[in-house]
């Protein structure tokens, strides 16, 4: 009899919510009842629905339990495993119908997803290579090495029109073809796993949940271009991803999927990990390669491109994690299969990390061409706490903000770019009516300013000046001419910076100016922050009709700006007030207003 399997989410986020304790308890109860020959439990990759984690799935029935706690383990074993009775209280409840949803595919969060890159997350143990093999693992590599020529692989990749998922969207097949055509005694292939965008965790989740899929894609790529050595450049802040990748590489070597004479052919290839120190600019391929060489992680001028002079001056292909994870499916099923979903210019799927003010925070894989509205409101469940949607930032800190008017655009590389945003690596941060778009632009610019390597003047000095202007505006010292200055300077930084970081860093400024210029004008002309976020523009007043003279506000005021007698209405001296908000937080009678 085939064993039933219990998979517990083993992604970094769920591990922090005690999912490992859930697994320990499950195994303990399995041992108590001597059920080892009937069921086994293990950690798996990210189910995506992080808002409802930790998640536990019982296979083959796919009973899907949400927000599981360690103490729920006994009930899952005693009820589901021993009596075949679903633990109803842990099943998802639809927030609209209040009905239980027993098939996870019918949960709104999953209904419109197409899981190709994430296909094994939730059904395999990432540290067990046999699980991967049982799900067609390394079959694409077998096909590539034993029945396809290098030219045929390159042709299939070009035919698929897969665009690099790291952000730039360069055609992968074309890049591989250029590398294939380069004559060199050595070539290299590099996986860029230096994911550093705030709110982005796509690549980390793929590596934690299905590391063999990325390895398989890399080996196929190496064979296609003629590389004998590969590297995964991964930031050291990803210890779990590093561990699972290391385990997977070692297991692949033992199975003969890495090393000498793979599948009995004359092709030999191996992979080495290189750890990054967490510099955002090292996501740029030339900076990444310099870092790999032990040099300071700074970008270099292009040309020469890495395809001509990359690692140690040799032809090098750099693709990111999600790009490699798409390769086995294309080789195994063909380019036509890959193009069954997506748009003509951007075929396939894309993994996004949904975060911010959204009901269903999580990891989603959707076909290109889906609308922003579908992602945010149908999959993401809309804005949290009944607030009004205001904007969504796509593409990470150097992406752009899109407004309500953009919700019905089809999401792909070209449409996002046409609207002033970018695909980036897949970060998607949702904002609501309480967010100030001027402050948001300043926040993202401050991040890229901090992460700039400082090598080129436009990025180093231009972004500093942009930040200073935004600082002026958000503190009530802006002038109307600052708007024109912001636009001119931002365009100059974009067009003159050396690398992608500088070239995209002004995007938040330009996109918020384009979509929310009225907020800039309110800050400058009316000295008012409509969202009541910019501290320097806030005014605190006491409503005498609500004030009972409890003195709580006066007691917490650090500058003694509040005066009044007990049981009498108090007042705030605006000249002394430092706008810290302590009185607003201390008042229990809604007497302190924030304007």
Task: Provide the fold topology.
Layout (H helix, E strand, L loop, with lengths): L3 E6 L2 H4 L3 H14 L6 E6 L11 E4 L3 E3 L7 H11 L8 E2 L6 E2 L6 H4 L17 H6 L4 H9 L2 H11 L11 H10 L6 E6 L8 H8 L1 H15 L3 E7 L3 H17 L14 E7 L8 H8 L23 E5 H13 L1 H4 L10 E8 L5 E6 L4 H8 L9 E6 L5 E4 L9 H6 L8 E6 L4 H15 L5 H18 L6 H16 L3 H5 L2 H18 L15 E3 L9 H5 L5 E2 L7 E2 L9 H5 L5 E3 L1
Parallel strand pairs: 1-2, 7-8, 7-10, 8-9, 11-15
Antiparallel strand pairs: 1-3, 3-4, 5-6, 11-12, 13-14, 13-15, 16-19, 17-18
Key structural traits:
single chain, 595 residues, alpha/beta, 5-stranded mixed beta sheet, 4-stranded mixed beta sheet, 23 helices, 39% helix, 15% strand, globular
- Cα(first) to Cα(last) distance is 69 Å
Number of strands: 19
Largest sheet: 5 strands, mixed
Largest beta sheet: what is the strand line-up?
A: 12-11-15-13-14
Mean pLDDT, to the nearest integer, reads: 95
Fraction of helical residues: 25-40%
Class based on secondary structure composition and strand pairing: alpha/beta
How large is the share of residues in beta strands? 5-15%
From the spread of the alpha carbons, the general shape counts as: globular
Low-pLDDT stretches: none
- Rg of Cα set: 27 Å
Enumerate how many helices there are, as a single number. Answer: 23
């Amino acid at each position: 009899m085939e064993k039933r399997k219990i998979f517990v989410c083993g992604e970094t986020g769920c591990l922090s919510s005690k999912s490992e304790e859930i697994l320990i308890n499950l195994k303990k109860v399995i041992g108590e009842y001597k059920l080892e020959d009937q069921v086994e439990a293990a950690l798996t990759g990210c189910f995506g629905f992080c808002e409802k984690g930790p998640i536990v799935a019982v296979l083959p029935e796919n009973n899907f339990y949400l927000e599981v706690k360690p103490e729920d383990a006994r009930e899952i074993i005693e009820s589901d495993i021993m009596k075949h009775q679903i633990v109803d209280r842990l099943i998802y409840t639809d927030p609209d119908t209040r009905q239980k949803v027993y098939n996870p595919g019918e949960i709104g969060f999953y209904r419109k997803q197409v899981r190709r890159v994430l296909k094994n997350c939730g059904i395999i143990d990432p540290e067990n290579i046999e699980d991967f093999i049982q799900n067609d693992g390394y079959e694409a590599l077998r096909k590539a090495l034993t029945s396809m020529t290098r030219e045929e692989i390159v042709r299939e990749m070009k035919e698929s029109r897969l665009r690099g998922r790291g952000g730039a969207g360069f055609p992968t097949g074309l890049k591989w073809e250029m590398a294939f055509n380069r004559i060199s005694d050595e070539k290299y292939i590099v996986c860029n796993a230096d994911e550093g965008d705030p709110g982005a965790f796509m690549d980390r989740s793929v590596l934690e949940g299905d590391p063999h899929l990325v390895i398989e894609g890399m080996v196929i790529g190496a064979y296609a271009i003629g590389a004998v050595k590969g590297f995964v450049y991964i930031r050291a802040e990803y210890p779990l991803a590093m561990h699972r990748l290391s385990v997977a590489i070692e297991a692949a070597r033992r199975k003969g999927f890495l090393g000498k004479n793979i599948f009995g052919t004359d092709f030999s290839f191996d992979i080495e990990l290189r750890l990054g120190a967490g510099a955002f600019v090292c996501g740029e391929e030339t900076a990444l390669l310099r870092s790999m060489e032990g040099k300071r992680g700074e970008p270099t001028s292009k040309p020469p491109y890495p395809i001509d002079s990359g690692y140690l001056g040799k032809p090098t292909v750099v693709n990111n994690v999600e790009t490699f994870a798409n390769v086995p499916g294309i080789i195994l099923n063909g380019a036509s299969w890959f193009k069954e979903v997506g748009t003509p210019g951007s075929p396939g799927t894309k993994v996004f990390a949904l975060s911010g003010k959204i009901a269903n925070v999580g990891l989603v894989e959707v076909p290109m061409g889906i609308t922003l509205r579908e992602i945010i409101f149908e999959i993401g469940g809309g804005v949290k706490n009944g607030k009004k949607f205001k904007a969504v930032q796509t593409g990470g800190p150097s992406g752009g903000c899109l407004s309500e008017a953009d919700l019905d655009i089809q999401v792909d590389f070209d449409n996002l770019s046409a609207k002033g945003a970018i695909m980036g690596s897949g970060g998607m941060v949702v904002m609501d009516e309480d967010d100030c778009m001027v402050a948001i632009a300043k926040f993202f610019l401050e991040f890229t300013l901090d992460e700039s390597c400082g090598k080129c003047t436009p990025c180093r000095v231009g972004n500093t000046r942009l930040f200073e202007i935004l600082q002026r505006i958000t503190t009530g010292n802006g002038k109307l001419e600052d708007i024109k200055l912001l636009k001119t300077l931002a365009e100059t930084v974009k067009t003159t910076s050396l690398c992608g970081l500088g070239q995209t860093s002004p995007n938040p400024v330009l996109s918020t100016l384009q979509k929310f210029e009225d907020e800039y004008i309110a800050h400058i002309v009316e000295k008012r922050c409509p969202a009541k976020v910019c501290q320097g523009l806030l005014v605190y007043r006491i409503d005498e009709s609500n004030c009972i003279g409890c003195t709580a506000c006066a007691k917490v005021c650090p500058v003694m700006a509040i005066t009044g007698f007990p049981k009498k209405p108090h007042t705030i001296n605006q000249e002394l007030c430092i706008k810290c908000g302590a009185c607003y937080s201390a008042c229990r009678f809604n007497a302190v207003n924030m304007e």
